[in-house]
Give the backbone structure.
Amino acid sequence: MRNCRENILTIFVQTSEVTILIRNCSYLVRDPTHIERDRDVLLEGNRIRTIGNNLPIPADAEVLDARDCVVLPGLINAHTHLYQNFIKGISSAVPLVPWCNQVLFPTLGAIRAVMEAGNRRAPFLWSVLAALEMIRGGVTSCVDMDATAPEILRAWEAIGFRGVLAYTLSNKWVPAELRAGEESMKQQMLEFVDQFHHPDGLTTVMVAPSTLFLCSADFLQWAGEQARRLDLGMQTHIAETRGEVDDIVKETGRTPVEHLQYLGLLESRLSAVHCANVSAEDVNLLAKAGALVVHCPKSNMKLADGIAPIAAMRKSGIPVGLGTDGCASNDLLDMWEEMRAAVMLARVSEGNAAAMSPQDAFSMATTEAARVARLDAGEIQPGKLADIIVIEPGGIHLRPFHDEDLINMLVFCGKSSDVRDTVIHGKIIMRGRRILSLDEAAIIQEAEALDTELLERRAEFQFSP
């Protein structure tokens, strides 16, 4: 295992600015509504410099030939839980709260026990493993509401992935042995922001009170105050289940969205995740406040949580980002599947085949997700962050290739395996479907060994409903 770890840590580091020319882009998708043919894109440092025809090749440039390919802005996963990579494919057919007690909390207990026993690699491994899956699928950044550890962000820096760590906060309901004390948690979060919030780099931090029933009112308000003081985004789960809504109404006399407004937290820096059980008045409140929503259709379907009224939200002007949620309640970090699911769920729930278009879903995975993540990305425009993917549409599932409506073709037929190259922060992280920044096979080997250990420890942790 020592040699395996040495290989993993032989990482690809670029300390100076790099120039990349993406040449001969047969299709350049600048944003969901603007597609151009036969263009070149010049990247300098971590930004897009120029878009044009037959651009000269700078002497020191790396060149990606995109002939017969589609060049897109990198996809953005607006909400996930990367630590759940160790419980993909194992959750039972149970709703959210029993699922937490039967699957999620025992896993967190096992992770903590393994780390306390001396294996501190778990956060690094789940973060790198997840980043590998996303990079291969054309995802260049994510918002990760995680079991927080510095190793998560160091993993992103090692592989070259852009990550937003939504620092999870809770002071009730979660078993006490799985969380820090409130004052300690507050101090740790502030120190974490100071150390890892780098708007000009690869890692940034959000404030993330997990959900209303996991946080007291004063703790929620403290979180909002810190987000405003430090100019950070704020993300929280809201109205995920009908039971959650009923409990909040019984306790406060207000819906979860109304309670956020009452606490002074309904504002433009807030991204409300799920909103699968909201009323028309809730939608109006979100829209008036300028708040954002994150839609996780596959997770909501798997847990039978409900169906968010996304068509109504977008019609009211609410920016809606798209997220996979964690691998325990989705099983994949695949934004192509998520886009398809969003379109189809909106159409069947509304009884209207025009309720959501592929362009809507693509916007939710790029430009609108960038607003949620507070990233200057999601479009291929001069000055934007150089987070770009190259699709090679050679698979039989994309043949015949109908380019009359390119976004329609990609959203309904595209797969993660179509991604050939991934550029993040102006650096080529995957080229020709080969990860350049670390030893992928060694990562998988070590992660599987850790998973065996976690499976053995999980049975030690049982939590009551």
